[in-house]
């Protein structure tokens, strides 16, 4: 095994150990269907591993990981929309029946999260990418570095997206 492959493997292992759960959350936010989500996550991992052959450390490892993952996920969404291979899943279809050991609060929280993910899933890819990075704790400058837009533009988008999601979330609660 050459030194480039060893470095590539080491970077991949480090990235999955430190950001594996975040990559799973990202895939869940972009894809609601379980099987397609697993495929997307596999595509993200493959692209991430491949990308490390060209990683020149011009940005942080964290920024690189999210840039690659969000680009793969955005491509997935665009490809899905072009193919029109499926329809969007409704909140009723997403929401699993509560088990006998679920409390009312757990059920309410699960429904609220499902509704939020459904709303985020309907956003355009760039807006979805911005809000998901924000929810992962990235600041505007880091999000801008990942997405290629200015930090000021990121902050404006975050503000608009949060307002839009809050308004739609409230509308959904009233319609229940």
How are the secondary structure elements laid out?
Layout: H1 3-30, H2 34-51, H3 61-83, H4 91-94, H5 104-121, H6 125-135, H7 140-147, H8 151-174
Helix pairs in contact: 1-2, 1-3, 2-3, 3-6, 3-7, 5-8, 6-8, 7-8
CATH superfamily of the largest domain: RNA polymerase sigma factor, region 2, helix turn helix motif
Number of helices: 8
Strand content: under 5%
Write down the CATH class of the largest domain. Answer: Mainly Alpha
Largest sheet: none
Instruction: Kindly give the count of domains.
Output: 2
The CATH architecture of the largest domain comes to Orthogonal Bundle
Low-confidence stretches: none
Fold-level CATH name of the largest domain: Rna Polymerase Sigma Factor, Chain: A
**Radius of gyration (Å):** 18 Å
Structural class: mainly alpha
Number of strands: 0
Overview of the molecule:
76% of the residues lie in helices and 0% in strands. It is an all-alpha fold and 176 residues long. It folds into two domains: 1-88, RNA polymerase sigma factor, region 2, helix turn helix motif (Rna Polymerase Sigma Factor, Chain: A, Orthogonal Bundle), CATH 1.10.1740.10; 103-176, Arc Repressor Mutant, subunit A. Helix 7 packs across helix 8. The longest helix has 28 residues, at 3-30. The model has no long low-confidence stretch (mean pLDDT 83).
Descriptors:
Arc Repressor Mutant, subunit A, about 180 residues, 2 domains, globular, Rna Polymerase Sigma Factor, Chain: A, mainly alpha
What's a quick, concise take on this entry?
This protein is mostly helical and 176 residues long. It has helices at residues 3-30, 34-51, 61-83, 91-94, 104-121, 125-135, 140-147, 151-174.
């Amino acid at each position: 095994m050459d030194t480039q492959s060893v470095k590539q493997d080491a970077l991949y292992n480090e990235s999955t150990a430190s950001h594996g759960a975040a990559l799973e959350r990202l895939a869940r936010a972009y894809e609601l269907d379980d099987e397609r989500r697993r495929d997307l996550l596999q595509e993200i991992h493959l692209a991430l591993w491949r990308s490390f052959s060209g990683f020149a450390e011009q940005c942080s490892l964290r920024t690189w990981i999210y840039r690659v993952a969000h680009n793969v996920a955005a491509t997935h969404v665009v490809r899905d929309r072009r193919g029109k291979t499926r329809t969007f899943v409704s909140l009723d279809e997403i929401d699993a029946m509560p088990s006998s050991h679920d409390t009312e609060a757990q059920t309410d929280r699960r429904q609220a999260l499902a509704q939020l993910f459904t709303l985020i899933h309907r956003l355009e890819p760039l807006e979805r990418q911005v809000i998901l990075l924000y929810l992962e704790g990235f600041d505007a400058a880091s999000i801008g570095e990942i997405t290629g837009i200015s930090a000021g533009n990121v902050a404006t988008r975050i503000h608009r997206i949060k307002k839009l999601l809050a308004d739609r979330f409230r509308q959904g609660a009233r319609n229940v």
